[in-house]
Amino acid sequence: MTSDVLRGYADSSAELIPRFEAISSADLFKPVADILPGTPSRVADIGAGTGRDAAWFAQQGHDVLAVEPVDALRLAGMERHRSSKIRWLNDRLPALSLLRREPPFDLLIVNAVWQHLDDAERRIAVSVLADMTGAGGLLILSLRHGIGAPNRPVHAVRAEDTLDLAATVGFRLLRQQKTESMQPGNRAAGVYWTWLALRMS
Ligand SMILES: C[S@@+](CC[C@H](N)C(=O)[O-])C[C@H]1O[C@@H](n2cnc3c(N)ncnc32)[C@H](O)[C@@H]1O
Question: In Å, what is the CA distance from 133 to each residue of 11, 79, 96, 127, 139?
């Protein structure tokens, strides 16, 4: 259940904040770097954590809406990444009821979040994400494969199922790339990732 996951992130926030911040966004986004928007764009980072990636996109001139439901992570991000180009929103998948009031975005990022949604939530979420992606816009999803932390439940995810689901709401595949985990502990536990870049037709 989403509330269990969010409680797990809140309970572990002191440990997770430095771990999230230690990751290089430039390294993380290498699988899709060449297809990211090259001109200032509207970006939403959903499940933004501490806003590490939001800040990286803002530094490149984009206007970023960082969506993060866990207070401890969102407040840490607001404190660390002060920028006039980042707005923060307390909202959550799958409904994204506040984000839905915004005009569509050029780029939506859902990085390391999809594993926390079950199949029913994914079906709702993908349709909301489609509504929030402008024509020709891009959705970047990173899918986590492998076991999760005991206090942050995960559901198995297959790239093929995600692509099938995304196709039903008008996304087409631009890029699919498997990567190893950047965090040594996760890598040792056999965690790996699939990056998907999807274009809204
Ligand atoms: C593994 S962390 C990744 C954070 C950030 N994207 C990054 O790469 O550092 C997962 C994030 O998703 C958030 N999250 C979990 N369930 C969510 C939901 N249903 N809607 C939005 N965010 C969620 C968590 O609070 C956490 O910040």
Answer: 32, 28, 13, 10, 7
**The two structure tokens encoding residue 24:** 């290089």
Rounded CA separation 192/125 (Å) = 23
The predicted model scores a pTM of: 0.97
Token readout for 45 is: 């980072």
Query: Per residue in 56-92, pLDDT tens?
Result: 999 999 999 999 999 999 999 999 999 999 999 999 9
Q: 68 CA to middle of ligand 1, Å? A: 7
Ligand 1 atom showing the smallest separation from residue 93 Cα: 20
* Model pLDDT for residues 98-128, shown as the tens digit of each residue: 999 999 999 999 999 999 999 999 999 999 9
